[in-house]
Amino acid sequence: MIIKSNFFKDTHLFFKQVSEKFILPNIGRLNITDVSDKPDFSKVTKFDLLVENELVQFFNKFDFNNIISEEYSSTLLEEKTYLTIDPIDGTRNFINGVNKVVVMVSYIENESSIFSIIYDPVEDLFYHSFNNAIYKNFIEIKKSKYKKHIGYLGDHAKVYFKDYVSNPIEKKRSRSIGYDVLEVLEGKRSFMTIYGSKIWDLFPAMSFLKILNFKTNLPNMNFDYAKLDEKIIFYAEL
Q: Which residues constitute the domain of residue 12?
């Protein structure tokens, strides 16, 4: 797959248009009939489905045909090349009127990330990774330098990860993996844990954290499905 020079700018414009139509007008303004439960008891809204459908059609135009998306189960998981889509990461925030929601995409080839995107529709911030660099609205950003660890560990995690992170400054999770990654990129969070993740939120997150050279308890940072069963910590080296 050849990524053309205007691809990311075209994608940003499309994400902005879709967000203005489906996400921004509806944060915290959903009717009870707009929300339902998935088999794993997580929530889904009709706008998750609408946004995802728009994104699938958009990426199909660029010949991304093997798409693994949150709201439509895929039988293509065993393929070596695929695009993942999380249409609204932070669905509970979206339902409850909390402005911490993002759109996430990753493109994987042979267990390597080619590019990933995290888009914050509230602030119209488009972050993407490509060629081992990270860009915020198309300007390359530098890695943050931390003096203290900032993040959240639950009681179990404090024991489980005692050798990785010590004496952290408490910062609650946002209930959106993608939004937590944006806080990492902005220097507001130096570590994050991911439990029970799905491919469409873990792999975009990993794409950015790997470029940042975050340390991890994983044996490797390959983009393989085994990681979906892991309890993972990513942390900056002070």
A: 7-140
Task: Looking at the structure, tell me whether residues 29 and 122 fall in a common domain.
Answer: yes
Which residue from 113, 100, 74 is spatially nearest to 183, judged by alpha carbons? 100
Helices (H), the chain: 7-18, 46-60, 91-96, 155-160, 177-185, 199-211
Residue 208: closest CA among 226, 195, 189, 225: 189
- What gap in Å lies between CA 113 and CA 203, rounded to an integer? 8
Q: Nearest to residue 138, comparing CAs of 121, 123, 122, 117? A: 117
The residues of the chain scoring below 70 in pLDDT are 40-41, 71-77
- 63's tokens: 């010949």
Give the Cα separation of 202 and 1 in Å (integer).
22
In this structure, the answer to whether residues 12 and 116 fall within a common structural domain is yes
Question: Does 117 lie in the same domain as 11?
Answer: yes
Question: What percentage of the chain exceeds 90 in pLDDT?
Answer: 75
Closest among 37, 182, 29 to 98, alpha carbons compared: 29
Phi first, then psi, for residue 65 (nearest 5°) are -105, -25
The pLDDT, as a whole number, for residue 81 is 92
Euclidean distance between CA atoms 12 and 10, whole angstroms: 5
